[in-house]
Amino acid sequence: MLTKRIIPCLDVKEGRVVKGVQFLELQDAGDPVELAGYYDQEGADELVFLDISASHEGRETMIDVVREVAGTLAIPFTVGGGINTVEDMKRVLRAGADKVSVNTAAVLRPELIAEGAGYFGSQCIVLAVDAKFDSTLDSWRIYTHGGRKATEWEVTDWVKEAVRLGAGEILLTSMDQDGAKTGYDLALTQRVSGAVSVPVIASGGAGAKEDFTAVFQQAGADAALAASIFHYKETSIGEVKAYLQESGVEVR
């Protein structure tokens, strides 16, 4: 059985790490280069860097910041935000990223997933999914542009199509739970984990170390991503991993 991964996330806007609730009310959380170095020392298994306003603002990812962050890391590093073409992927990977995350651009043009997987391999292509519960669908709908635009895609239909096209991993964010610190959306995570054969990273809602145990043991996540509770030192990666081990969850 593969060990479970703990992944801090740097949501970056205008060169600073920010954190909000349900994608709104963003607060400053620090310098991305300093935080990346801190998490590398703390025992994070990977790091995710998301330029959260790049797609909405119609610009490319902050390559200089990516390069600086990559220079501090010895762990795998995923970068997303504003990646629209294979050329954008090349720039990010050359700057030091190990994987690229695509979201809005992939929904608008799904062939981008196949192009990236064909060029770099599926292991490099992470599909980021922003999902919000829709009571009329009785399921979750996909949103793009940093959670601003609803699409017609139902979550399991979209992740299955993305994996068919070559996505090697799913970064699944519950918009309903994002920043709420009341736990991961277990029903959503379980739905997606059961629908695809690739690893699923659960995101949105971590508020305590118990939440990590729940998303691994009850919802089948392969990795858990968190931001606020690590940025503001409410708990540490070491504490979370120790608790998981005590709970019978294999961690790195």
Automatic annotation (TrEMBL):
Annotated pathway: Amino-acid biosynthesis; L-histidine biosynthesis; L-histidine from 5-phospho-alpha-D-ribose 1-diphosphate: step 5/9
Keywords in alphabetical order: Amino-acid biosynthesis, Cytoplasm, Histidine biosynthesis, Lyase
Source domain of life: Bacteria
E.C. no: 4.3.2.10
Keyword Cytoplasm: yes
InterPro entries xrefs: Aldolase_TIM, His_biosynth, HisF, IGPS_HisA/HisF, RibuloseP-bd_barrel
One of the Pfam families matching this protein, by short name: His_biosynth
Subcellular location: Cytoplasm
Catalytic site: 11, 130
Molecular function as annotated in GO: lyase activity
Catalytic activity: 5-[(5-phospho-1-deoxy-D-ribulos-1-ylimino)methylamino]-1-(5-phospho-beta-D-ribosyl)imidazole-4-carboxamide + L-glutamine = D-erythro-1-(imidazol-4-yl)glycerol 3-phosphate + 5-amino-1-(5-phospho-beta-D-ribosyl)imidazole-4-carboxamide + L-glutamate + H(+)
Main location: cytoplasm
Functional summary from the UniProt entry: IGPS catalyzes the conversion of PRFAR and glutamine to IGP, AICAR and glutamate. The HisF subunit catalyzes the cyclization activity that produces IGP and AICAR from PRFAR using the ammonia provided by the HisH subunit.
UniProt record similarity statement: Belongs to the HisA/HisF family.
Description of how the protein assembles with itself and partners: Heterodimer of HisH and HisF.
Official protein name in the record: Imidazole glycerol phosphate synthase subunit HisF
Organism encoding this protein: Caldalkalibacillus horti
Gene: hisF
